[in-house]
Here is the input.
Amino acid sequence: MTQVIWQDSYSIGIDTIDTQHKQLFDIMNKIYVASEEESDLEVIMPLFDQLQDYTQYHFDEEEQFFTTLSKSNIEQHKNEHQFFINELEKIKQQSLRIGTISLELLYFLNDWLVNHIQVEDPKYLEQESLTQ
Here is the structure.
């Protein structure tokens, strides 16, 4: 796994949300670098806590915004967000148990986030353009 570098193709065209997505990538990259450097959990866990906090903040913001665009399927989107939040907590707890964070788990987070940004988030913008 390598760091996730923001690409224009990840943009959903809403500056606030794109900026938040970039921030999520930045935090995940910091965790990745710390893990690659075999940093202790005392270094990694505060970054992981930051990722959890910022993810919750971002998902709350995104859900509010998307709810103003369309009520349809917002519950499914919220469920996907909750799945990711739950996975973050599982990964955190597992890391604390084993004393390190797995690069495989970081890959999962990366993959899920990129897929979510490229596939799921644009659905709400498409719905908005169809209703105009």
User: Anything to note?
Assistant: The two ends are 41 Å apart (CA to CA). Residues 11-131 form a domain with the Four Helix Bundle (Hemerythrin (Met), subunit A) fold (CATH 1.20.120.50). The chain has four helices and no strands.
